[in-house]
Amino acid sequence: MSTQVIWRLEGRIIYVKLSGVVTIEELVETANTIAALIPAEDNYVHTIADMRDMSEFPKQIKHLAAVIPQLRRGSGWLLLVTQNIFFRFLATTIATMASRHMRVFDDPHAALDYLQQADDSLPPLGVDIIPGDEEVASD
After folding, report:
1. Which pTM value belongs to this model?
2. CATH of the domain at 79
């Protein structure tokens, strides 16, 4: 499986790991999973999508538009972590179409630093919010 979704701070921060070749079907399924985790009484749930290990991403905007309804769920930040310029462009385009607060970072710890400043209702975030590879694989 090339996508995994886990709570990192129950009710507040969802961590998504995308790796390898990610298909449009997997993106839609992942977006549905995230939307189902966010409660109806959204408590400002944030999502960190770690795309650093992703090697391929659907390239056609019309196919990617299938995830827009799910991305509209929730009022928290969508923080993407990738160094790939093409992935950044596509993800930014989709987030803009979904009218979602979004930022892109090269490093997951920079994303955490930003989130800590952007949402002062969060408790202090430690580096353990970003799981190691073994932890993601076992969840």
Report:
1. 0.85
2. 3.30.750.24
